[in-house]
Write a structure and sequence with these properties.
With about 525 residues, this protein is an alpha/beta fold. Among the domains are: about 1-155, Alpha-D-Glucose-1,6-Bisphosphate, subunit A, domain 3 (Alpha-D-Glucose-1,6-Bisphosphate, Chain A, domain 3, 3-Layer(aba) Sandwich); about 295-390 and about 405-410, Alpha-D-Glucose-1,6-Bisphosphate, Chain A, domain 3, CATH 3.40.120.10; about 445-525, TATA-Binding Protein (2-Layer Sandwich), CATH 3.30.310.50. It has helices spanning about 1-10, 35-50, 85-95, 100-110, 130-145, 160-170, 180-195, 200-205, 215-225, 250-255, 295-315, 330-340, 350-360, 390-405, 415-425, 430-435, 470-480, 505-525; strands at about 25-30, 55-60, 70-75, 120-125, 150-155, 205-210, 230-235, 270-275, 280-285, 290-295, 320-325, 345-350, 365-370, 375, 445-450, 455-460, 465, 485-490, 500-505. The strands form five sheets. Strands 1-3-2-4-5 form a five-stranded mixed beta sheet, sandwiched between helices. Strands 7-6-8-9-10 form a five-stranded mixed beta sheet, with helices on both faces. The longest helix has 18 residues, at about 35-50. The termini are far apart. The structure holds 2-acetamido-2-deoxy-6-O-phosphono-alpha-D-glucopyranose and magnesium ion. 2-acetamido-2-deoxy-6-O-phosphono-alpha-D-glucopyranose (16G) binds near residues 350 and 351. Its EC number is 5.4.2.3. It holds the Pfam family PGM_PMM_IV. This is Phosphoacetylglucosamine mutase.
């Protein structure tokens, strides 16, 4: 096997000296530098499969990054992100020079006492990037080189592949591991739920969808046929002429706080955007004055947790519901959830794996990043519920269908969209009414280039900078000048820069504060290039 691996690996040569890291969401860089990484991750996935005696997933995507980039993510048996110790192996294997690749492999096999005669099974999927087909072929080469069985799903969204892996490893209990199985489970639940809708007119069923010119657009088309017109989607940026993620998609809309290009929004019309691999979603609308309103991950978490909490009460279930957020959560959302909704709020570091892990600790964990990635965990308990009173029965039925609509493996734009649409329909709520549950504090995100972003170390779920000395004191002093203000800085886990977040009572204060904090980072943490300029 070893000689086969080293021979085959010659066909996927590593550029000498190139070092890459398995980051927050896997490997991500220009597609040109990834062929060897793909092959080697095919090898690693078969080892992981033998170790866990389960199917492992490999998704080829760079999410919201530009079209020229690509990346890879490993999926563990329950459909969750690969466990951190194996992220380390991924980095080691990706960076091993050709001559030592075999010994690097052997190292992992020994450390993990992997029995190479076990069978191995790997599911592979890819997004619509021009480079994805070739790169996923390299993954397949790696898997077959170590004798793993392959199921190649071809073009799928990231959450769809997570879902398939979970289905396979739970032997059908969670669902059927085919695209048809996925669409059927979701659409049946959706149709059942919308039977409880209040005045569900065609107007209310209408939703404008920005597909980011990516995989989500293709998959929404496939889903549509199963929805029996209960949701009437008008698709924009479907990939037929625009570039992936370019001036569109969830990340663009969230960061720029404006609508994507290529969408035709009438006043008050409900719109949503997916990101490039359809694991994030944000909603928005223009009001009659033409001003833009964003409903991000925090608003989504609030809508879903409020709905679930109500159902739990109606079903007579005494379960603890919690919302997991990150430092980016708007201060208003946290305040609303804690003070008005009285749900537990927990804050973790940025990155899906951290939120997912934290959410597992509660009876029901709703987790969302402000950027629109999120889902709900541990709902299966309810399935055993046998309510006797009619009202309870009704609530229990709603809960059951809601569970079936949620992708518990990971945040899923398509599933989240259907959950949101169902909740709005059941409550007879317009997007404006949803938006008015609480008012976001104005906020601003900026980035600063520094010589070495590792200079900045954070604590308290990234809300405080521990190093360089004095930086946090400066931030504290700046924040004090404004009302309802908050700010933090953190090194990005996906790009070579430092991110700055500020919020305050007015947009002007948030903008000025963000700029002042950027300057503090620039001066105290080794800024490079031009000094940050004030906004506008
Ligand atoms: C990745 C993460 C996302 C996080 C973002 C932060 C996953 C699947 N995705 O896209 O959750 O919000 O990185 O990026 O974990 P940053 O560290 O560059 O700010
Ligand atoms: Mg994504």
């Amino acid at each position: 096997l070893d000689s086969k691996a080293s021979q085959k690996s010659m066909l996927h040569p590593k550029p000498k000296g190139l070092m890459l890291q398995y980051g927050t969401a896997g490997f991500r860089t220009t597609a040109k530098h990834l062929d060897h990484v793909m092959f080697r991750m095919g090898l690693l996935a078969t080892l992981r499969s033998r170790k866990t005696k389960s199917t492992i997933g490999v998704m080829v995507t760079a999410s919201h990054n530009p079209e020229e980039d690509n990346g890879l993510k490993l999926i563990d048996p329950m459909g969750e992100m690969v466990t951190p110790s194996w992220e380390g192996y991924a980095t080691q294997l990706a960076n091993a020079e050709q001559e030592v690749l075999c010994s690097a492999l052997k190292d992992i096999i020994e450390k993990e006492t992997i029995n190479m005669s076990e069978t191995a099974s790997v599911f592979v999927g890819r997004d619509t990037r021009p480079s994805s087909q070739r790169l996923s072929q390299a993954v397949l080469d790696g898997v077959s080189c170590l004798g793993g069985q392959i199921q190649d799903y071809g073009l799928v969204t990231t959450p769809q592949l997570h879902y398939m892996v979970r289905c396979r490893n739970t032997h059908g209990c969670y669902g059927t591991d085919t695209l048809q199985g996925y669409y059927q489970k979701l659409s049946q639940a959706f149709i059942e739920l919308t039977k409880n809708a209040r005045n569900h007119t065609d107007d209310q069923k209408r939703l404008l969808v920005d597909g980011a010119n990516g995989i989500g657009a293709l998959k929404v088309r496939e889903l549509e046929a199963c929805l029996q017109s209960e949701l009437q989607m008008v698709l924009f940026n479907d990939g037929s002429n625009g570039k992936l993620n370019y001036l569109c998609g969830a990340d663009y809309v969230k960061v720029q706080q404006k609508p994507p290009q290529g969408i035709n929004m009438g006043a008050g019309e409900r719109c949503c955007s997916f990101d490039g691999d359809a694991d994030r979603i944000v909603y928005y609308y223009n009001d009659s004055d033409g001003s833009f309103h964003l409903l991000d991950g925090d608003k989504i978490a609030t809508l879903i947790s409020t709905y679930l909490k109500e159902l739990l009460t109606q079903a007579g279930l005494n379960l603890q519901i919690a919302v997991v957020q990150t430092a980016y959560a708007n201060g208003s959302s946290t305040q609303y959830l804690e003070d008005i909704m009285k749900v537990t709020v927990s804050c973790t570091k940025t990155g899906v794996k951290h939120l997912h892990h934290a959410a597992q600790k509660f009876d029901i964990g709703v987790y969302f990043e402000a950027n629109g990635h999120g889902t709900v965990l541990q709902l299966s308990e309810f399935i055993r519920l046998k309510a006797s009173v009619d009202e309870k029965k009704h609530a229990a039925k709603l809960l059951e269908n809601t569970i079936n609509l949620i992708n518990q493996a990971t945040g899923d734009a398509i599933s989240d969209m259907l959950v949101i649409e169902a909740v709005l329909a059941i409550r007879g709520m317009t997007v404006q009414e949803w938006d008015s549950i609480y008012t976001d504090l104005p906020n601003r995100q900026l980035t600063v280039k520094v010589a070495d972003r590792r200079m900045i170390d954070t604590a308290d779920a990234e809300r405080r900078a521990v190093t360089p000395a004095g930086l946090q004191d400066s931030i504290d002093a700046l924040v004090k000048k404004y009302t309802k203000a908050r700010a933090f800085v953190r090194p990005s886990g996906t790009e070579d820069l430092v991110r700055v977040y500020a919020e305050a009572e007015t947009q002007e204060s948030a903008d000025v504060l963000a700029h002042e904090v950027s300057l503090a980072v620039y001066h105290m943490a080794g800024g490079v290039g031009e000094k940050p300029k004030p906004l506008k």
